């Protein structure tokens, strides 16, 4: 984006020139704050009232906390130790209270003198430190503290009612030190350039940006905080939506080849062969896609659909329309298992239409090729040749499609499956292979709440398939509390045997593969969650469970394993045997999470279900109930009933509505994750805007942004907004927003 360079203003001053090098270094390294503007936008997390104390009763273990409390008692003890053998060691124990609970502070050695003089009973102060347990009591060892004194002239009532900002802090820099630094730079807030157009600000009754910054850092009343937050939420929502609106506007300026299906082409031949009728939802979404494909600028569409709603069918019809128009279509899948599965299902659905140019192939047919990293040299060479000559109209593959060697004859459409698993660079590399930018269809089975779609995928038009095809069966989900009720687990294995006896098949899913290389190979898995630590038991593993089941409760059944570290040919062979009904029970990792389609599989047992996220459990569950027989999903967990993990599982068991579950999932994660923080490596730009709660603000900001960009795409009349965009869209973030 050709944004003007940020205006030279006090807010761009480096912190080290204002605060001193030591403090500035800690702020840069631990909080990512580099300029005066960064610090002014580091908002308080909450506020304490001097007259009202925090709840000591609710302190979290092992977290760095800031509390406001009153000293109830202070005692100095002497003791003997290796360093002070003659009983000269000193320990100061201070008990503080807030009316809800008590907390002990301890100071040792030379560190006792200052607090012994200052922390007298009745003194009020802010204390910061890490909460630990000693002798079954909560304590803070050597906390930093700041006395709360009223100045002589200040009336006690005013002093007691003052709101104390508590900032997101680190062990190296306490909240009140950040507060003092903010106090130093706060006069610069008057120079802040306002990104909101004056008409918008006045029309919505929002305070100016300088006023909002003063009120968020130094509020006199709770109303001040509300005013400031309302204004700053609008800034965040609006600047982000303007960035996305400009992206959409830029996309409409790109050239693309319109692709319209021929009335008597391969798409018509395919539709005539279908043994079922498309759902109304599939027809409606297909019509939206065909309209986009017929335009002379690239389609950018997100296709959301519940697991099993028939997204692949819609995508395939779009690909056939492009082939009809003389172009090629590429489908990008995140794993080899899924690429092979898509290739198998597409060629089966197309039948002789997938044998273009071959003996027995249909007149309108085309070639459908598979391209993955582990293919043999000869097969790979043939696939590459079919693509460059245009012989193959459709290619399905993994990231191997993106390599430099892969050349297309005329790439017209890119379909990306499970978009969240691809980096932006990968999508861009594939788009770059068209003579002109190809059309783009992004598919996801992870339902995305409307506001997140507007925020994260704000540059894509959205289509939703919310209707399941006829013949799909409901899935019953139950939590199996293995620790509280072991007989429930025994019953679970009986249910699996019953399904198999009825001619059906089952999945057993485990979080881990299970050999010595497992954790070493995957640094993410090596990190133990707090729940792992609490249990002191590694997650259950495919190889161990398969062996135990084969010897025990599922003895006599045909049990096979599937995991990501198997050779691709072996994985494919296992899936083929399972699909053909030659295997009764497949014990697998989450490689089966997306795309695997075996209608005869009716039961799934997920071991250590608490180790999976809500959306992931919903995805996994979607692998059963894909035929006419009802599905059964059993979530096995050893977590206690009152735990958050069990509540999460109960939520999954209580509803099949993916949108409801994605909302629950989102509420349990940080907003930053939602905005792809992990993908872009950039701190989330959202500080006060909550994607779920602030739906109204986001929707209104999107409308305002679209109108503004339509009238003034280059924002020539709004230098303040251009400056704010420049700050938001540093290079990495701009790439991240460039989803198309």
Topology:
Elements: H1 16-19, H2 21-31, H3 36-40, E1 46-49, E2 64-79, E3 89-97, E4 102-108, H4 113-118, E5 124-134, E6 137-141, E7 144-147, H5 156-161, E8 163-166, H6 175-185, H7 198-203, H8 209-217, H9 222-253, H10 266-273, H11 280-293, E9 300-305, H12 311-324, E10 328-332, H13 336-350, E11 367-371, H14 377-389, E12 392-397, E13 411-417, H15 424-431, E14 439-444, H16 450-456, E15 461-465, E16 475-481, H17 486-501, E17 505-509, H18 517-521, H19 523-526, H20 530-535, H21 542-551, E18 559-562, H22 568-579, E19 585-588, E20 601-606, H23 614-621, E21 631-637, H24 644-654, H25 658-668, H26 671-674, H27 677-680, H28 695-711, H29 719-728, H30 731-737
Parallel strand pairs: 4-6, 9-14, 9-15, 10-12, 10-13, 11-12, 13-14, 16-21, 17-19, 17-20, 18-19, 20-21
Antiparallel strand pairs: 1-8, 2-3, 2-5, 3-4, 5-6, 5-7
Helix pairs in contact: 8-9, 9-28, 9-29, 10-12, 11-12, 16-28
Please tag this protein with its features.
21 strands; 740 residues; alpha/beta; 7-stranded parallel beta sheet; single chain
Explain the overall architecture.
The relative contact order is 0.10. The model is unreliable at 1-8, 151-160, 516-536, 670-684 and 731-740 (pLDDT under 50). This protein is of the alpha/beta class. The longest helix is centred in the N-terminal third of the chain and has 32 residues, at 222-253. The strands form four sheets. It has a seven-stranded parallel β-sheet with strand order 11-12-10-13-14-9-15, sandwiched between helices. The chain contains 30 helices and 21 strands.
